[in-house]
Amino acid sequence: MFENDNTTCAPSVFPGVLNGTNSGACGLNLAIRLFPRRLWLFGFDMGREGKPYWYDPYPWAPLGKTANGKYKAWAGQLDILAVLCKESGIDVVQVGEKSTLPGFRHMSVQETLECLK
Q1: What is the pLDDT of residues 84-106, one digit of tens each?
Q2: Looking at the DSSP assignment, which residues form a beta bridge with residue 106?
């Protein structure tokens, strides 16, 4: 298991520590540690437009869903990871029809499928 500082998305230099204010940031921190040439972020756009993606709304959140304002805050907190990826030569592609992650390159699903052929 990993330790976590849930107040920051800044990566930790310590083994066994994955920081992040949300699970997506923790996952991105883990992926970055593997030093890939490219990361594809599927279903990771930090915006929902009122619709859940793959699962039922969380029962503990107000009205059973995460507020859209929270997604905007989380998206902004990923800027530090976008800078780190650029400095490390990791090409991060946010795949989806809409992007709220300005620090990462964006591709539509169709463009991505063509690229992966």
Answers
A1: 999 999 999 999 877 778 889 99
A2: 94
